[in-house]
Automatic annotation (TrEMBL):
One of its GO terms (molecular function) is hydrolase activity, acting on carbon-nitrogen (but not peptide) bonds, in linear amides. It comes from the Bacteria. Pfam families: PIG-L. Gene3D superfamilies: LmbE-like. This is LmbE family protein.
Length: 235
């Protein structure tokens, strides 16, 4: 079981979602933290086609990206496009959080452009809230609630209250995104695909924060817990 003071967990709906916060994850990894990526869906859709082969391909792409950073992966294998804030989903997430005992959990904002993102956000909120309850059932015992952060959004408004300087990790972040080849149309130039978009967003957030490249987050208070800033939002 991981030490609660040295683990950070990103929970994303799809296989490439957590790579969008790879700068912050890499910064924590560089400081000695254990990094865990949780992927909710099975990735059956790739460039408009659905197949069992895609499921295996998407998981391999996630593992290839994770190897660049040195992070651990957990796959929940929910059908893509069918993430719902159900009790069994919350319980499975609660069990994963209890297993790793992260100090920080990052997930999608409650308002996002994709229904899988929004339902993942709701499920994570409930799981974080539940992980210290003695009434829940699971393989692992209750653990303290981690601090919860929403990650930046695409295509919808997002108001951050914390920025992380990822200037030293931008190239690693982009290389991790490039591992997801099934999500990159071969005839698109990089400026127009998700790699170029992620670089532009990181630069835009960096300008807002007065640095080269940044990732933006919003803290989610649970029972008005005080924030304990370390690397994410380090003061």
């Amino acid at each position: 079981m991981k030490n609660i003071a040295s683990a950070i967990m990103a929970i994303g709906a799809h296989h490439d979602d957590n790579e969008l916060v790879a700068g912050a994850l890499a910064k924590h990894k560089n400081a000695g933290w254990h990094v865990v990526s949780v992927v909710m869906t099975d990735g059956r859709y790739a460039l408009g086609k659905s197949s069992e082969e895609n499921i295996q391909l998407r998981e391999k792409e996630s593992l290839d990206a994770a190897a660049l950073l040195g992070m651990e992966c957990e796959f929940m294998h929910l059908p893509e496009g069918n993430v719902y804030p159900l009790e069994e989903t919350r319980n499975a997430l609660t069990n994963i959080i209890r297993k790793h005992q992260p100090a920080i959990v990052i997930t999608h904002p409650a308002k996002d452009y994709h229904i899988d993102h929004m339902n993942t956000s709701r499920s994570v909120l409930e799981a974080v809230y539940s992980c210290e309850s003695v009434h829940g059932r699971g393989e692992y015992p209750p653990c303290p609630k981690p601090f919860l952060y929403y990650s930046d959004a695409w295509f919808t408004p997002f108001e951050p209250d914390e920025y992380v300087d990822i200037s030293n990790f931008i190239n690693l972040k982009l290389d991790m995104l490039r591992c997801h080849k099934s999500q990159i149309p071969p005839d698109w130039v990089e400026d127009d695909n998700m790699v170029g978009h992620a670089k532009l967003q990181s630069r835009t957030r960096g300008i807002e924060a007065g640095i080269k490249y940044a990732e933006a987050f919003r803290f989610v208070p649970l029972h008005a817990r005080l924030r304990v800033s370390n690397l994410l939002g380090e003061k």
